[in-house]
């Protein structure tokens, strides 16, 4: 009788738990049902040739696989080892590299950059004196949005050091630490700091101290290796309304800001290490939980704009930039995320630390809605929330944004006197 009562009590408790968290208990590390058909539909609806997807949960790889083709017009498929440019998702690797050096006592997060690069200067002497290693990663230096990008885009003969030295001639747009403005050039400065204190180039340090240690054996660390090798995805972009192959960006001076090319298999390994506070295996750590707290803490608040009606649910309650990651919320959970964009490649990395859940979506076309639809479809599954048609939602959002863009261009055109000719000599 007592055993029967215990069994009844167990069933009641289990039923209660399932009613509270049905998806998290039943799903565990299983992928969403019909995931393959969903990704195929995303590829079709957003015209993406190839997608690489990694999902990890509770320290295990749920899936790491490819979908579609590497290049339009050619049969070679995308698989788990196919390389894609991850662009600005590289920034988290640069931040992690600095965290490793902090743990080794070679640098300090809040020490002035000039302690390690005495020759470094910005246009304001006060900012030059005060800017710290942490400031290099969090987009609050006072430089304007994209400041210094024309020093390296679309291509340059300048070395990384020469670009960093020329920053002294770029005027600041706002007060120091007073506003968020995304930049790439200060991550190049971070790369110079890594070289100065470690004696290794950013490329060698990240390749040897991070990728090799984690076992990211497919990946490489240079823009110039994009679309190279026997299993690399070709970048694509819409040109005159038709998706076509485009030339990859190959300038290596900006590798610390966006140079890594990675596979789904390798991104799964990266996600597991990040979600386990730097643990590679039972005997090896890349970094400690203290560095995780640094990487995943908001430093610079980011503005929160309105969302189109179809994706209003994605408007966060908080949003800020940490060290190489963006921190925000979704359905009551803290999200650790970042995106990446290069000619022909866009990607998204998302983690929910509380659920030990990580998702990486890499694509070889410039549709951000594609990686968003896949990401939120997967997050909703593990959160146990009602299914939402994210494909339709993001298609509506794309139309909303396009209509606003068309209206803005129309207003500009109407203001211009077409009879006057060019405002400047051709």
Keywords for this structure?
alpha+beta, 426 residues, globular, 36% helix, eight-stranded antiparallel β-sheet, 13 helices
Question: What would your notes on this structure say?
Answer:
This protein is of the alpha+beta class and 426 residues long. It has 13 helices and 14 strands. The chain has helices at 2-20, 22-27, 35-46, 91-103, 125-130, 160-166, 185-198, 202-214, 255-258, 264-275, 289-295, 368-383, 390-415; strands spanning 50-57, 60-68, 84-85, 236-239, 242-245, 261-262, 279-281, 284-285, 300-301, 319-321, 326-330, 333-342, 345-352, 357-363. Strand 7 and strand 8 (284-285) form a beta hairpin. The chain is globular and about 55 Å long.
Brief summary of the model shown:
By secondary structure, the chain is of the alpha+beta class.
Low-confidence runs of at least 5 consecutive residues:
8-27
Strand runs, count: 14
Q: Would you tell me the overall average pLDDT?
A: 92
Order of helices and strands: HHHEEEHHHHHEEHEHEEHEEEEEEHH
Strand line-up of the largest beta sheet: 2-1-14-13-12-11-10-9
Principal-axes shape call: globular
Q: What proportion of the residues is helical, as a percent range?
A: 25-40%
- Given helix and strand content, the structural type is alpha+beta
End-to-end CA span:
95 Å
The whole-angstrom Rg is 23 Å
Q: How many helices does DSSP assign?
A: 13
Strand content: 15-25%
